[in-house]
Amino acid sequence: MTGHSMTAEPAGPAGRAPGGSRLSPRKRQRISRAVQYVVLAAAVVAVALLVNWQGLALNFAKMDVAVKAFPEVFTVALRNTIIYTVGGFVFGSIGGLLLALMRLSSVRPYRWIAVVYIEIFRGLPALLIFLFILFLPLALPGFWLPGGTYGLGILGLTIVSSAYMAETLRAGLQAVPKGQMEAARSLGMSHARAMISVIIPQAIRIVIPPTTNQFVALLKDSSLVLFLGVSGEYVELTKFGNDLASETANATPIMVVGLTYLLVTIPLGYLASRLERRQAKGR
Amino acid sequence: MPHAVEITDLHKHFGELEVLKGIDFTVDEGQVVCVIGPSGSGKSTLLRCVNLLEQPTKGTVRVNGVELTDPDVDIDAARRRLGMVFQSFNLFPHLTVLANVMIAQRRVLRRGKAEAERVARENLAKVGVGDKCDAYPPQLSGGQQQRVAIARALAMDPDLMLFDEPTSALDPELVGDVLSVMRDLARDGMTMLIVTHEMSFAREVADRVVFMDGGVVVEEGPPEQVIGAPRHERTRTFLKRVLDPTHASDDTADSASSATSADADSEGTQAQAR
Q1: Is B185 helix (H, G, I), strand (E, B) or coil?
Q2: What is the mean pLDDT of chain B?
Q3: Which chain A residues have a beta carbon less than 8 Å from that of B94?
Q4: What pLDDT, in 10s, does the model give residues A241-256?
Q5: What domains, with CATH codes, occur in chain A?
Q6: 3-state class of B220 per DSSP?
Q7: Residues A198, A184: contact at Cβ < 8 Å?
Q8: Which residues fall in a compositionally biased region of kind Low complexity (chain A) (predicted)?
């Protein structure tokens, strides 16, 4: 502990430490803290003086522009963001469960297919997938999805989220103790029955916290629907904010949209960490 | 009449490791057979081979005349007749005690809800946890959980009960409750095959005791003989260590826990996908 004082001394950026390296740890800590406060205060003063607050306020927080975003930011944009996200989440969960079961299957080709799918779609930027989807109707002439733009957006999010969900669910399935399957089988259940009645319900419980985080990630990824060239009733938050911003030549709508995202993502984030803590206690 | 359990020339390898080296062994209906032996002797593996939780490498297992090792046998149907109780209980933690005892009755035996519930409550009362129906397994003590596990197996009306060190994971003061449930079962004529370290229980309840070491049956016979007056040196050494651990010259770790059982809690860390 004391040998450390030699190397720690030059770390003080102020260089005003009286008495050289012979300071007690408590004194050194006090000085270090004082220096940190001074640096922080200097930074705050500098930002306050140097930034053009009026210009910023005019571009990012203009009240009369902000008002224009209501109520559509909630009734149309947020609603659509939630539709895209929940749709992608539901189908992604189903696809992910299927892929996770394939990944753990005893049939080797199933494992290969699952691994290839997961590796590809976790490795690609989500945006690239949306750009692909844009060309699907061109590439496959008979291509049709229910729900119009909703269908396309949900498809894109499903492709991405099923790859991530597959890995989460696989971890969840493997986290269920082996004895559970043995107990179920020794009661005469078939492998499939044991999976459905015993293993999958427990795996889902295990993955609820990480899945909540995945839902948040998906909510943010739903902004990529912007690149599908959506319009009118199909716009989600990002597209809505972007359109209104170019219309009014002002960034305030983007701020409004940003706050709207946070309104959903921050509570969900808290929920996820609460669920995590509760699970850590319960197990 | 066929034996309740008939095992012939049973071998089991785990990779290079030969755990069972040719076991021949029978249990007759109504008999209580206790298998004792040091950890790593293969006794848990033997038990797990009886209901094919482990696939034997070689040899046959017959239960009530049905050869379970026949690849064409309906193993799920055969297991319905075999109750199994694990060292680590293995109750389903997401279900209430009552649902734990009902689920296989409903899904496997296709019993109606009312009947399954009646049978479940009956068996839970029988093992002394009738008042815990609505609790979840993690809320119960180890002794209560193990008794629920016994009720869960009994609810399937098994012909044979397999016990894999049922008291090894329990606090010492809870062992007695579980053993007394097992004693009652034996008295009612249940056929039981028990892997245990409880020598006084084996001595009192067993019709036959089998001592295993190194993957073979070293000695078997009535408890007075195998536990009371063992003929083999290995049996004598083992019993001395178990019954009088403080005076055994070698290390006494064997009696504490079994390394062979596969229930090392795999509290797997959840890999975050992202």
Answers
A1: helix
A2: 88
A3: 201-202, 205
A4: 999 999 988 889 999 9
A5: 71-281 (1.10.3720.10)
A6: strand
A7: yes
A8: 8-20
